[in-house]
Write a structure and sequence with these properties.
Length: about 160
């Protein structure tokens, strides 16, 4: 009985993880934005992007995570998106010593969609789902063939 409690306490001490809020922003973009088009833009769906570095044993496998990459992935997840509104940037990490860990930047906010750029986007179909925790939308452009396959598989999908 004491041994199991000791092992539980030791594992709790060695497993570490944390989230740091880098900042909250009213408008955030890594792209060149023409401010004259912002007035004609519309508020879109919630989006997120991340850049994650995996740590195996104690060796980083993909270099350091990049904040710009996380922001770019959030912006590029929706066609015509030029910036993030009400954006939040976070750094998340966890590490189980000598086994596995992750360091990641996370960018999330609402898409600011420029209708002129959205209409010229090659993506005509977008699939929007919830993430695993059911607290965020994930928007992903798909090809017409992928969209039709999703419709065949899920007959309950709403079409607009």
């Amino acid at each position: 009985m004491k041994l199991s409690r000791l092992l539980l306490l030791a594992s709790a001490l060695f497993m570490t993880g944390c989230t740091h809020n880098i900042g909250d922003f009213t408008v955030l973009s890594t792209k060149n934005v023409d401010f004259s088009v912002i007035a004609g833009s519309r508020r879109g769906i919630p989006v997120q992007g991340d850049d994650t570095q995996h740590i195996v044993i104690f060796i980083p496998t993909s270099g350091a995570p990049n904040l710009k990459t996380a922001i770019d992935r959030a912006i590029e997840s929706v066609p015509g998106n030029i910036a993030l509104l009400d954006a939040r940037l976070q750094f998340r990490s966890f590490y189980i010593p000598y086994i596995y860990g992750q360091n990641a930047f996370l960018a999330e906010g609402r898409a600011l969609i420029n209708p002129a750029q959205a209409s010229h986007s090659p993506a005509k179909y977008i699939v929007v789902t919830y993430d695993a925790k059911l607290d965020r939308y994930i928007a992903k452009p798909v090809s017409p063939a992928q969209y039709q396959a999703i419709l065949r598989k899920n007959s309950f999908v709403a079409q607009s």
